[in-house]
Amino acid sequence: MIFPKKLITWYLQNKRSMPWRETTDPYRIWLSEIILQQTRVAQGLPYYLSFIDHYPTVFDLANAKEEEVLKLWQGLGYYSRARNLHTTAKYIANNLEGVFPTTYKDLLQLKGVGDYTASAIASICYNEVVPVVDGNVYRVLSRYFNVDTPINSTQGIKEFKKLAWEMIDPEQPATFNQAIMEFGALQCKPQSPYCIVCPLNDSCEALKKGTVASLPIKLKKLKVKKRYFNYLIFSVKDQQTIIKQRKGKGIWQNLYEFPLIETEKEVGLDYIKDNDVFKSLLNNVDYDIILHETEFKIHKLSHQHLYTRFYIIKTEEPPKINGESNIVGIEKIREYPVPILIGNFIDSFF
């Protein structure tokens, strides 16, 4: 079929130079694929290089502390990826003697590895004929075949996987998979694709029908939830502050933050001072408190927006803390893994 041959020819002429394209080591391919989930190549590349530098093998990653892994991941977001990465590294090192599964089916059993990642590793490392389907692939296939089935619907997921199976070159599955992903990233872009010089423009159904700009179709996301985060930033003699580790299964699990008062709507200083969290920390302690900035810092996550304010609390003696909080020297605050929202505040304030 002409489709895979043209894609592969284009890829060999236009592909970007990437360190993970110079190897078939499953550890490095797996690491790159986990990092590049929800992340652009330009942002993910420095993280990949940093992880390889710190953890050259799966055994090195397995032996690391989770806090070290989270700190190295800081700024990439979707931190469950980092926790799953660490969990899977320990499983491969300790249960599989450092040897990765060699088939798509077995790779799917690893924590944090889904259809796309298993397909990528199986085809690139072991030349298994199994197609990858990511955002770039959805876009290329939906436009080339003019398919308007929503890509995030159950029917769409099945339909596009079937198309990918029909298109893959069985003799060069690794090259084909990388070619179609690269084609979507560089040529068949979301906005302003290069249709005029596209090697597939003589057979692209969406180009013929004038529907390129409207494809692929995606169902609307769930309503975005608003959350109001009011952080208490302690400054004890301008030398110490208080942080605590987030627990539970919500956002930022096991990362550190400042004491938090979460509310359902915007609140004022009087509400903060009357809150149980605030009073438990400042019982019988003299303090001064000011709002750092009146405007909210809005931090956007996939299904929620965090409207955030920081209250600066100066004291001359350490507040009363419980077992979940730590008093740390301001000079050590950057050693802890924190969400990027907190990291940005630390860089601007301390």
UniProtKB/TrEMBL annotation:
Cofactor dependency: [4Fe-4S] cluster
Pfam families for the chain: HHH, HhH-GPD, NUDIX_4
EC number(s) from the headed UniProt entry: 3.2.2.31
Cofactor comment: Binds 1 [4Fe-4S] cluster.
Domain HhH-GPD as annotated: residue spans: 35-186
InterPro entries in alphabetical order: A/G_AdeGlyc_MutY, DNA_glycosylase, HhH-GPD_domain, HhH_base_excis_C, HhH_motif, MIG/MutY, MutY_C, NUDIX_hydrolase-like_dom_sf
UniProt KW keywords: 4Fe-4S, DNA damage, DNA repair, Glycosidase, Hydrolase, Iron, Iron-sulfur, Metal-binding
MF term (GO), any: purine-specific mismatch base pair DNA N-glycosylase activity
Family designation: Belongs to the Nth/MutY family.
The protein's name in its UniProt record: Adenine DNA glycosylase
Originating species: Aquimarina rubra
